[in-house]
Amino acid sequence: MTWRFALVIEPAASDDVRTDFAADFRTIDPAAPALSVGELSTQRGDGIFESIGVVDGHAQEVQAHLERLAHSARLCDLPAPNLAQWRHAVAIAASHCPAGESVIKLILSRGVEHGPAPTAWVTAAGAPDNSRVRAEGLRAVTLDRGYDIGVPARAPWLLLGAKTLSYAVNMAAIREAKSRGADDAIFVSSDGYVLEAPTASLILRRGDRFVTPAPNGGILHGTTQLSLFEHLDRGGFVTAYETIPAAALTDADAAWLVSSVRLAAPVRAVDGVEIAVDAELTASFNDYLLSPRD
Amino acid sequence: MTWRFALVIEPAASDDVRTDFAADFRTIDPAAPALSVGELSTQRGDGIFESIGVVDGHAQEVQAHLERLAHSARLCDLPAPNLAQWRHAVAIAASHCPAGESVIKLILSRGVEHGPAPTAWVTAAGAPDNSRVRAEGLRAVTLDRGYDIGVPARAPWLLLGAKTLSYAVNMAAIREAKSRGADDAIFVSSDGYVLEAPTASLILRRGDRFVTPAPNGGILHGTTQLSLFEHLDRGGFVTAYETIPAAALTDADAAWLVSSVRLAAPVRAVDGVEIAVDAELTASFNDYLLSPRD
Questions:
Q1: Top CATH class, B131-290
Q2: CA nearest to B189 within chain A
Q3: CATH number of A3-126
Q4: Average pLDDT by stretches of 10, chain A with 294 residues
Q5: How much is the ipTM here?
Q6: Which of A134, A262, B19, B33 sees the fewest Cβ atoms within 10 Å?
């Protein structure tokens, strides 16, 4: 991964109607010291983020990511982000991305402890080469997420559904999957329903029907899943949000983990049980996901 | 809060037998930029921490904090910290703390994304004035933590029991408590057992018996609770770790939230139900907790 660019943002109020926010931006060396040790993002994982895929300098689905950033901010009681300001910052970051695939990250932190205001920044970096996992697929294991499916509705302070910087558990789940000889994890609720992967959404195919776990189960509403469902709808397929029992994973005709940078990775096994990989359909998904999308 | 001091550490291997680690330390301005945007502590809350109380320049219970740091590192698959190195860093930080109360934080991060090694630093800052909450107590609300009491044993990837930097939920719980007119939260398991507060341990008194939730329920083993239990044992009281139903909270003769910096704060109400505050006993607890402890 190559760092390409970093921009520190002075967050504007959400009702600031400017269209040019350049005066709020400060370009920095992404490898240089930029954040103080008092940063609450660092001390408490207290902030939110988005990762946006960039293909040949085009940032994908920016609006969907910005809307989710605003949604996460609401769940975390952070000031509403000024989406025009973030859009401007993303455009600048994208202009620093060369041909090929990159990733732009947006981070909104609660700020420095006892400081006056949130801090915010945008980075751009080269994306890892995901061509192999897109073609060959990955092996997943299911891991208990600890919550039953009703928890998110009754305990909003658990921030389920917000994309917070507190991702230590997500990272630990991926390590656990690798320690079991797999590539990735699929979280399952304590009462046996499929949720999501630590950094991706799950899509299952049953015949001509494509389903994904309903996002009210405390999972992130995946921007790539949303985009792919629109694509499938246009192609005449049926798409649906469902409460999916874990047993349905290995009964599926095919399964994918989809995310903004890795895009569509076919799941070739769950807990050691093989699942068919539809190479042609997967390739068509990734052709679409690599095309410019807004 | 006043920043007093910050020290960046080049982490030594756990089997490095030096006794002087000064060459690994770099003093920095705590308000100045020190961390890069690629820090995984910031991007993912991926690291661990400890907060050590300091009274008149004496760092309290350093060994217990270092042992918990090592425990958290094991749970998070981080390299084992060199405790002699951390102890040396704490001693330097403590030497920058004036009379009165301060707090030293230890942070061990997984490092910069794709970087070679973990990053680590120690800060010292003035502690807030907690004299009022120690004397007058606080009002708490119970909040569902979402997990049943058996989850930690069966799902170690959830990192329950590790003091990670992913504290967004802990911070959200305190905000939720304040939005309900209370001062702090007490987490309860989804099956109705008392766990801990977002940044403190709970101790209940029933007659001459003091109980705290058993730490195998996925809670942190509180260093202040441990120290206070030793004190109570020496005073002839009975102390015990128990699985405590939530209903026992308001049946208790007294209750405290105890932590390294706020020390013993009596709980004067839970969910609006008043609990007696034993001012004399609480004052004796805090006298002890403010005395030099190793």
A1: alpha beta
A2: A147
A3: 3.30.470.10
A4: 89 96 96 93 96 98 98 96 98 97 98 88 97 98 96 94 96 98 97 97 96 88 97 97 95 97 98 97 98 96
A5: 0.95
A6: B19
